Amino acid sequence: MQITSPQFKENARIALTDVGLQKALGNVKTGFPQKRANAVARLPEFDQLRDQGRDLKNHIIANLDIYLEEFEANVIKNGGHVHWCRTSEDARQTILKICQDKGAKTVTKGKSMVTEEINLNEHLEANGITPIETDLGEYILQLRGEHPSHIIAPAIHLNLEDVSETFHAHHNKPKSMDPAVLMQEAREELRARFVAADVGITGANFLVAETGSSIIVTNEGNGDLTQTLPKTHIVVTSIEKVVPTLEDMTLFLRLLARSATGQEFTVYNTLSTGPKRPEDQDGPEDYHVVLVDNGRSDMVGGELQDMLRCIRCAACMNHCPVYGAIGGHSYGWVYPGPMGSVLTPQMIGIEKAALLPNASTFCGKCESVCPVHIPLPKLMRHWRKNEFERHLTPKAARWGIKTWAFFAKRPSLYRLLSQTSNRMLRLLGGKKGRIHKLPMVSGWTDHRDMPVPSSKTFMQQWNEKQKAGH
Q1: In its keyword annotation, does this UniProt entry include Metal-binding (predicted)?
Q2: Domain tally, the chain
Q3: How far does Cα 61 stand from its chain's mean position?
């Protein structure tokens, strides 16, 4: 996947003028947030579950090595294999070797953002193996040559017209605008692929240490077919997905469905525990788990450790005003929205992703809806600080911050400047109290009026209230 995060501003400008995208994004603003709110309202103990989820995740991260080793031991006990991969290249080569050893020509895939992260599809295709996405959204995007714009609804940036055109171009069938007809087309196309696949690759929402199981949650059932029909099942996931017990897993499943899609529970919740046993009616002959680090272990014990609590529900981006305006592709890599603004600099470098943590109003909505209380604004501030300390911020911004700091360190001068600026801005605003043009802030006044400030500064109002006993 090509990284375009350095062009974030240009990406955003294009997105804001894309009529089709803006129409599609309207569904994000009105759909997911309301469904989540309704689901939460039906569960009085939801906030208590969030606290439990945060505390359990913190415990897991503090003991990550212990639980991962327990998970590995149980996978091996069940007849499976575990592969530890520090980098994306390690993971790609490991998966490729498994496929080549099995003589695989085609591979079906259940939705996995980690396989997007490591550019798996491109690597398999370059080595003569055809990957077939089976999640409906991912399948549509594969036909279009696009990547996901959302971590749980990958094709949310498309409208019905786009899907109809795409299927008509690739399925050699009459064009239809009926969602049921389009769904049936996808089923017919994918059914033969499921049966013919040599290897099935899925992600994992969680890994259970006590049983050596992986679980994938879907609303389509494609994950089940991907991991039971082929002779080889490969789970590709990241190290922080491990949980101690099956009971712990159910806690996160209750949080995940409500936070992601507003459901009480996801339709399909499928556990895989090793290869097929003699008494099993179906299942793979070989079971492999590829554990991807890719910089995550470096986050343990550091300022970004809280990000490892993420359960990939997408609630942060569903409620983010910036994501809602520009969509996921503008962020220029695998993970969009607030969570991507924290993860992307860690994984591809702040040099390439410095614009992302700055693309936030810091309204705090992302933190308020996070099912495991990740302080996303705080983590984005960490990257802003890192960017400034490494002199990556534009000179104009650095000059502005230094100028502000000079006055902020001198309270008397700061108050004088504030009072003087207030008077000048009020004069410019005239009787209407609106400023239409203002030097040095044309980025604001070129597109909207600027209201004049109050006649009194914040400190003046504060002192008055203090004296009045408020």
Answers
A1: yes
A2: 2
A3: 20
